[in-house]
């Protein structure tokens, strides 16, 4: 599968009634082709299998993968984490088969500090508040509804302190514009155009927008 700037710490493959835990020497990285290979000592049985992967990744400061940006208010620096996976950079955030022709459903679960907004493709399904594991702050874990079948480059999530304005399309889709709080008054034009574009393309292609909401995020 594809992986770049990812360190796998544990990989378990469950198939049939058995499972394989891959040793460190069985996890091979092909950086040239942006792949990670899991080498087994035994042939795998035919049929469905479940692959569980634990890994560490990097939040970079460039404009691809899962990256960070910042804004400053009253001398205080605020950080935003966001994604840009097109055309093939989901592999920088999590191991996956990062090819547009391959599709899957994605169930996102994100943990962050309680005062952050957490956005993804789908609406939140459940939010649990709890103590942060590495500090005395309060955290939240947000579980999102599963996505439709889609390519990995369409996965998106954003974490930060935002304000938003919203409207509704002709077909009832909620459209929101998000930005840092002191810039949200500049978002009305984007909201108006976003709703008009969504209405137009649904009519032009005769294909309904498949999600319940559309978020447009102004990342500084």
UniProtKB/TrEMBL annotation:
One GO term (biological process): proteolysis
Record domain Aminopeptidase N-like N-terminal: where: 1-154
Gene3D superfamilies, sorted: 3.30.2010.30, tricorn interacting facor f3 domain
Gene Ontology CC terms, in alphabetical order: cytoplasm; extracellular space; membrane
GO terms of molecular function: metalloaminopeptidase activity; peptide binding; zinc ion binding
Xref: InterPro entries: Aminopeptidase_N-like_N (IPR045357), Aminopeptidase_N-like_N_sf (IPR042097), Peptidase_M1 (IPR001930), Peptidase_M1_aminopeptidases (IPR050344)
UniProt-recorded name of the protein: Aminopeptidase N-like N-terminal domain-containing protein
Lineage, broadest ranks: Eukaryota, Amoebozoa, Tubulinea, Elardia, Arcellinida
């Amino acid at each position: 599968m594809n992986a770049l700037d990812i360190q796998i710490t544990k990989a378990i493959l469950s198939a049939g009634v058995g499972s394989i835990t891959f040793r460190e020497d069985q996890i091979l990285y092909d950086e040239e082709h942006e792949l990670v290979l899991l080498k087994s000592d035994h042939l795998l049985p035919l049929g469905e299998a479940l692959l569980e992967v634990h890994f560490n990744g990097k939040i970079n400061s460039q404009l691809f993968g899962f990256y960070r940006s910042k804004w400053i208010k009253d001398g205080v620096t605020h950080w935003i984490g966001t994604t840009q996976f097109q055309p093939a950079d989901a592999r920088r955030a999590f191991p996956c088969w990062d090819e547009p022709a391959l599709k899957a459903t994605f169930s996102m679960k994100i943990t962050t500090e309680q005062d952050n907004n957490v956005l993804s493709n789908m609406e939140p399904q459940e939010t649990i508040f709890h103590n942060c594991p590495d500090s005395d702050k309060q955290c939240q874990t947000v579980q999102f509804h599963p996505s439709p079948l889609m390519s990995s480059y369409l996965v998106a999530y954003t974490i930060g302190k935002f304000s938003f304005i919203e409207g509704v399309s002709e077909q009832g889709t909620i459209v929101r514009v998000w930005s840092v709080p002191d810039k949200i008054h500049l978002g009305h034009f984007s909201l108006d155009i976003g709703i008009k574009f969504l209405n137009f393309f649904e009519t032009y292609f005769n294909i309904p927008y498949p999600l319940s909401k559309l978020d447009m995020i102004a990342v500084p």
